[in-house]
Write a structure and sequence with these properties.
The protein has one domain: Rossmann fold (3-Layer(aba) Sandwich), CATH 3.40.50.150. Helices cover 29% and strands 21% of the residues. The protein is globular, with a radius of gyration of 14 Å. The protein binds S-adenosylmethionine (SAM). S-adenosylmethionine (SAM) binds next to loops. The site of S-adenosylmethionine has 20 residues, from loops.
Length: 149
Amino acid sequence: MPSSKKARQAMIQLSHETGQGPIFELGSGWGNLLIPMALKHPQRKIVGYELSLLPWLTTAVLKRLFRLDNLQVFRKNFLQADLSSASLILCYLCPNGMHDIETQLASKDGNLEYLISNNFALPSHQAVAKIQLTDFYKSPVYLYKFKSA
Ligand SMILES: C[S@@+](CC[C@H](N)C(=O)[O-])C[C@H]1O[C@@H](n2cnc3c(N)ncnc32)[C@H](O)[C@@H]1O
């Protein structure tokens, strides 16, 4: 399921406070968030990981159409990816997925400074900011900070 328009807007808004380093989206789906992120941050490297064939292929085609040279999208399980160069991670997963990310991040060193999650919290971290969407469920979007910029 893609992020809603309101969630995408909130995530893009929060991303403006996260410096200039590489942005990785874990589970980038059809590119509903990844493509606007790459357009909004032409000076930043944007990387997406998506397991499903059609969503990944669609994003790869959109990358070509929009000539997004700052974007790379891989058909790959992000749990087996090297995330060490990510400065900002974006995700919209399920609670289990958030747990897996937390475990993955704890087991490796890296440059991660921020993580923005749509709807689901990281189980063992405290968000530094939260946007409550004006949708039916008042869905949260969380911003986590990992180290001083
Ligand atoms: C809820 S969708 C969100 C899509 C997109 N991030 C968005 O906001 O519109 C979650 C996506 O994560 C992908 N996904 C889940 N686990 C994954 C994994 N371990 N590696 C790569 N992709 C994964 C799913 O295939 C799905 O497309």
